Amino acid sequence: MEKFLTGMRRQAEREGEKETESLPKAKTRKYDEAYVALGFTVTTVGGEERPVCLLCLKMLAADSMKPNKLRRHLKTLHPNHANKPLEFFQRKRVEYCKQSSRFLTATSVNQRALLASYKVAYQIAQCKKPHTIAEELILPAALDMVSVMLDDASAAKIKSIPLSNDTVARRINDIADDLNEQLVDKLKDKRFALQFDEATDSNKDCLFIAYVRFEMANSLCEDLLFCKYVRDRATAEELFKMLDCFLTENGLKWENCVGVCSDGAQTMAGMRKGLRTLIKKVSPNAEWTHCILHREALASRHLSSELNEVMTDIIGVVNLIKTRPLKTRVFSAICEEMGAEHQALLFHSEARWLSRGKVLSRVFELREEIRMFLDQEHKYDVARKFSDVNFLMKLAYLSDIFGKLNELNLQLQGKNQHLPQATDKINSFTRKLAMWGRRLDEGSTVSFENLQEFVDTTDYDATSVIPYFKQHISSLIGFFTKYFPENSSQYDWVRDPFNAPAPTGFSLAEEEQFIEITSDSILRLSFTSQTLSEFWLSVEKQYPLLGQRAVHILLPFATSYLCEIGFSAVAALKSKYRSRLHIEKELRVAVSCLKPRFEKLCIAKRAHCSH
């Protein structure tokens, strides 16, 4: 080895400043030590070898692999080390390798901490919690758990995760931007349906929320389109401008919109200047749907004067007890003393769909406790009503009928609701109303549980009040017919094409495809194992005319339930302690069904230790 190195030095001295060919590539230990003897080591960058000075750690260009250039660098910049022995440079090389490994280790730890920071921020946004919870609760709790279950060294690694308030906010904004980018990419050149609504939050800010339903991976997906502040009046023109700007900025086409759904407010549903009319001008094929949940609430709110009097008295008693803390405590003590299952009444709210049924059921359950409380409060006129059999039978009926309406409302709620499914449930309830009316004509109250129980336990005849109940049911049938004019049989061919006849409105080509579909035994087998939307999306590939027609029926929203979920999430996110929070990105991360691309987010960021 010494002879080899001496020969290399002598050859370089003879050549002087004359450029020569590079030393052989450092693929063996002998040639590698030849570079070390000149004060260099070799590293690979971008597929080519480059020398690195062991004294100043400076990386030279690839063409500096020639011995005369390496020696010139050593003698010019490091003259005091030019005559050092080989062992000196070998020690420097070992130190350089250790330093590189430490740097790589630190970098990998920081990358993991960055990924952990994004995932923790995502969980915080999903749970709708304040950003400060990460630094104040999550990190200290994680340190305690890791130090107890593992060791202090592992806990020290946890400390490197950046989880400050501002950091979590930035992470959530990055995740929201990524989710929005994914959504826009999936929506481009695809059919979609919209539902939207506007409301005011706890900070008196007006918000316009829009959800979208579209095809993704052979099924229908629902996600938040946007949530934006309305800066001025919430007119139809202003709301349409917000919708149009979002679609235009993101390269989405109105021509691909096949349906819109909203409540029946004048701003949304106006025939002349409403939002539905403005959308119809730019998207003629978009069909407007009045939210079925809102229509059901409108159809069920009408009461006769006799039943409305009972409802007014009940609301007055509830407000008497619930609006005064002392009376609430006294009533709770009475309920506890009498062994009641519940110790409190429920507030009634016209704006809440399920409120009326729950209030009436609770009042009927605690009727004896309410009567005793009113006697103690010397409210003799109202207390007398809770001893009146006719009043209590009307209360029992109202609790029963609104309980059944609540069941219908809950069936209509939820995601992935489409028009054929919703009209089936409305049609079923209307037929039940007719059946309950026939039972009442026969003098039977078996269909109403609370009423039947009260009649059985008190041995009173309900004949005197049955006409009021029959009148109310007849009124309900009329209002349901008015607010739901759709004929559910028009969707039979979509619900079950193999057992329904072809509609009369089909063209010749569509009817031919219908015959081919209903004669396909493979499709018949797959129909039972797939959802309705999955089945017709798969059929559309082979039978485009009929498949497209069916998808245009299934794609539009039947309710504005998702908007109500969005406003509930806003209420949880934007409390009085977070009134300055900009809600759009927080809400997107909280309610989106898409998953963030954490690896892509981490690549775009430089990892730093927490400080």
What would a concise description of this structure say?
Helix content is 59%, strand content 9%. With 611 residues, the protein is α/β, with parallel strands linked by helices.
Give keywords.
611 residues; alpha/beta; Nucleotidyltransferase, domain 5; 5-stranded mixed beta sheet; 28 helices
Please explain how this structure is put together.
By secondary structure, the protein is an alpha/beta fold. The protein folds into 4 domains: 2-84, no CATH class; 108-289 and 564-611, Nucleotidyltransferase, domain 5, CATH 3.30.420; 298-483, no CATH class; 501-554, no CATH class. Helix content is 59%, strand content 9%. The chain is built from 28 helices and 7 strands. The protein has helices at residues 2-15, 29-37, 67-77, 86-126, 133-149, 152-158, 165-187, 236-249, 266-269, 275-282, 292-300, 305-322, 325-337, 355-365, 367-376, 380-385, 389-412, 419-441, 449-458, 466-483, 492-495, 508-518, 521-527, 532-542, 544-554, 561-573, 583-591, 598-603; strands spanning 40-45, 48-53, 192-200, 206-216, 219-229, 257-262, 287-290. The strands form 2 sheets. Strands 5-4-3-6-7 form a 5-stranded mixed β-sheet, with helices on both faces. Strands 1-2 form a two-stranded antiparallel ribbon. Strand 4 (206-216) and strand 5 (219-229) form a beta hairpin. Helix 18 runs antiparallel to helix 20. The longest helix is centred in the N-terminal third of the chain and has 41 residues, at 86-126. The relative contact order is 0.10. The model is unreliable at 1-5, 15-30 and 102-107 (pLDDT under 50).
